[in-house]
Give the backbone structure.
Amino acid sequence: MSEIEIRPAISSDLSYLMKMDHSVETTHVWQMDLNTDLAEIETRFREIRLPRAVRLEYPQNAQEMADTWTRKALFLVALAQGQPVAYLTVEISQSKVAHIADLVVDLPYRRQAIASAMVLAAAKWAGQRNLKRVMLEMQAKNHAAIELARKLGYEYCGYCDNYFANHDIAVFFMNSHKI
């Protein structure tokens, strides 16, 4: 892996970031089972293997990034040989949680620990601002992102049905201890 630099985004990064391959290929998804009766509501996610790999489109519109990037509490990019190859955005909730909504690594740079480094950089930033926790959001179909969250010690903390514009389920993972 080449040397990676992580720094705050600047406006000239946006054209590179919008051209990245935001999709992900997956062979596993989390399937939600919902059981309800008068006295109980039970939601269960289970990992299932798909019969073949599917391409999962990114649930956010990358073209809107140019209009919204300055509204983020934190917008980091990772550079390889001076070119942006990944980005991460953070919003801060009213409950003092750093919410990582966007985490994208361009296809040729995946599986090189760049996403892990970016999450760790965001957590360090959050800790310096006395935020309580860091939360990651992702599609329930994004197996790679779920595995990343679990590898980094984040724990499942909830879901929201029809969360994304494409009506996919979002799952949320939060670091298990205060920063």
Remarks:
- The mean pLDDT is 92.
- The radius of gyration is 17 Å.
- The domain at 4-175 is CATH 3.40.630.30 (Aminopeptidase).
- The chain is about 20% helix and 45% strand.
